[in-house]
Amino acid sequence: MEINRAEVVAEVSAAYHRYETALLQADATTLDELFWADARTIRYGADEILYGHDAIAAFNKRRRLNPERRLVKTVLTTYGDNFATVSTLFADVPEGMIGRQMQSWARMADGWRVVAAHVSVIDRPNEIGQ
């Protein structure tokens, strides 16, 4: 299996940047498109546990604009041609905290889709990983 083939990284990166732009703009339509439309899709959020695309879409409809979101470190890794993970830290959280977001992306017939996601906020460690 080839890790981080340039063209696959570029595809996932483009999909992820669409996701981030939609998140900042509270664009529920694009967010819904980028989550796999399946009952097996999971999103564990900072305050919610969502099983299935319908629950995630309902949550996305309640999103607010988030122009203050600032990514601290993003790591994108592709595994072969059809699977990737994107992990990032974000800093639009209370002082002394750090947000963490991990997504599993899979290539589907209609493009790259988030199949599982986890968001959490923790006390900020003294050192943020290299």
Describe it.
The chain is of the alpha+beta class. It has one domain: Nuclear Transport Factor 2, Chain: A (Roll). Helices cover 28% and strands 37% of the residues. The protein is built from 3 helices and 6 strands, in the order ααββαββββ.
Write a concise keyword list for the protein shown above:
130 residues, alpha+beta, Nuclear Transport Factor 2, Chain: A, 6-stranded mixed sheet, 3 helices, 6 strands, 37% strand, globular
Short description:
The chain is of the alpha+beta class. It has one domain: Nuclear Transport Factor 2, Chain: A (Roll).
Any chance you could write out the topology, listing elements then pairs?
Blueprint: H1 6-25, H2 28-34, E1 42-44, E2 49-51, H3 53-61, E3 71-79, E4 83-90, E5 97-108, E6 111-123
Parallel strand pairs: 1-6
Antiparallel strand pairs: 1-2, 3-4, 4-5, 5-6
What count of domains describes the coordinates?
Answer: 1
**Low-confidence parts, pLDDT < 50 over ≥5 residues?**
none
Q: Work out the helix count.
A: 3
Would you count the extended β strands for me? 6
Q: What are the secondary-structure elements, in order, as H or E?
A: HHEEHEEEE
What is the C-level CATH assignment?
Alpha Beta
* Helix fraction by DSSP (H/I, runs of at least 4): 25-40%
The name CATH uses for the topology is Nuclear Transport Factor 2, Chain: A
The radius of gyration computed from the alpha-carbon positions, rounded to a whole number of angstroms, is 15 Å
CATH architecture: Roll
Biggest sheet: strands, sense, closure? 6 strands, mixed
- The portion of residues forming beta strands comes to 35-45%
